[in-house]
Amino acid sequence: MVNRKDLNPDSSPRAAYGARIRRYREARGWSQDVLAPKLGYSSQHVSAVETARKSPTLKFSRRSDQAFGTAGTVDSFEREWAEMRTGSLLAGFPEYVDFEGRAVELRLYEIGIIPGLLQTPEYARVLADSAVRRGATTAVQADERVAFLAERQAALLRTPPPMIFVVMDESCVLRPVGGAAVMDAQLDHLLAFAEMPNAVLQVAPFAMGERRTLDYPVNILTLPDRSVVCYAESQSQGYLDRESSSVLPVLTDYHQLQRESLSKTATVARIRDLRKGTP
Asked: Among 1.10.10.10, 3.40.50.720, 1.10.260.40, 3.30.70.100, what is the CATH number of 9-87?
């Protein structure tokens, strides 16, 4: 076959996925041109997935299962996609994301960087590429994390949408990430988020001093049954707490933090000043 690229399934989970798509396709005597319409994608897209130049999606995986008859089996492409999606994430985080996708209220507090759910693709990419340069992750894992973040953000656009309360330490908006263009777009995105009817955005100013009640990033979720879970991270591990005896005090700390933070109106004014270059 002309221009056939050899695949190394052992090089990455994405390469293994692509090699299996090719193996299943060729076992049926199908060319990429034959498989593509069965999946609803172009042959170029199929080729890019097979050669690991493009990450598969949930939609691509489910359509592959339909085409190859693997839906609902232990060998389904959807299952492989799910394992690949979470394999590059911090231990404990995939379990949290399952709750996040069902929560009716999200309360987020972040220090140093814009919370992931509010990051623009460009801002997220700068952070991911920085981790690659430091040797903290691989390029493939960085791609997977950026793609996964986009999926999490899209999941919040459900009907009805969850209420989202966000408190950011002032360091989040003052720390330059990716240069002026990236930061300007990120600040514009925060302003747009603040205008959403289901969103409350606040900045916890440095002037708060010792009145800051939380010294670590935390996510608090209220689930449909009104139970509350809390998620926090160390450098190497995520911790999901569902015990009300330990979660409720954190929720109290969060409410006190909100009380001491800038109001939504003052927060918007602060971000607009930064957008204009005003200290």
From this structure: 1.10.260.40
